[in-house]
């Protein structure tokens, strides 16, 4: 009896081992098949362009500070209008900067760039023909504020400025700073005096001693204005306007001669001479015609200038 039981147990154990081994083989077979299928599928998808990773490249975005400078240059070049506050009104006029300067030319114009209201975005102060214009960038708009002569005398590195005012035999001198609220100027007076007899600090009358003590404790550094290089702003624009005027693209070929067109420009005062040439064997061959382009208004007039090059 014991021999029969032992034999039966051995038989069952062998059967169990055989069954497990077979199941493992099936699992391995299945896993191998699935792996091969997945690999083939991935390879096919890649070849068909389906499984390509999406591009992570993005266009570089300009900061608000960079956008402001780009906008100011466009305003100076009369390519963009600015918001100009109307006197004693909440309304704005939308004009080109040339209107503020009575359509005058840029005569030795200078500029200073400084963050006057400490919002992280620079203002540009342009001086031309004795008039200062503050360009302020806000919500993708450019606002312009003009100051005549003594209304803004010296601009300081902290954004404040000195001013002088004469009225009814009262000679006022002071220093203020400004902020911008919804395109409007807001003034904060730091200190001033009237005929050097009355003295004020933060709008409160003080003694002469306290007045000069405050100034001594708050020394300021003047900002230097630098010339505006209008040629750098306008040479390309002048060529572009002449190209549109002639309906000829710079570098295009003349169908009859097979010669390539070339433009040449040089500044003459407040205008550009823009001339059209045929370009042959890497040299200017013949001057065809020239125009004068006003760098402020963009107006085009004919020119009899001939500049033969060869």
In a few lines, what is going on in this structure?
The chain has 310 residues and is α+β, with helices and mostly antiparallel strands.
Order of helices and strands: HHEEHEEEEEEEEEHEHEEEE
Oligomer: single chain
Helix content: 25-40%
Question: Total helix count?
Answer: 5
Strand order of the largest sheet: 6-5-4-3-12
- What's the story with the biggest beta sheet? 5 strands, antiparallel
- Tally of strands: 16
Backbone shape: elongated
Strand fraction band? 35-45%
List keywords for this structure.
35% strand; alpha+beta; five-stranded antiparallel beta sheet; 310 residues; 16 strands; 5 helices; single chain; 2 domains
Description of the structure:
By secondary structure, the protein is an alpha+beta fold. It has 2 domains: 164 residues, no CATH class; 74 residues, no CATH class. The protein contains 5 helices and 16 strands. Strands 6-5-4-3-12 form a 5-stranded antiparallel β-sheet. A 5-stranded antiparallel β-sheet has the order 7-8-9-10-11, with helices on one face. The termini are far apart.
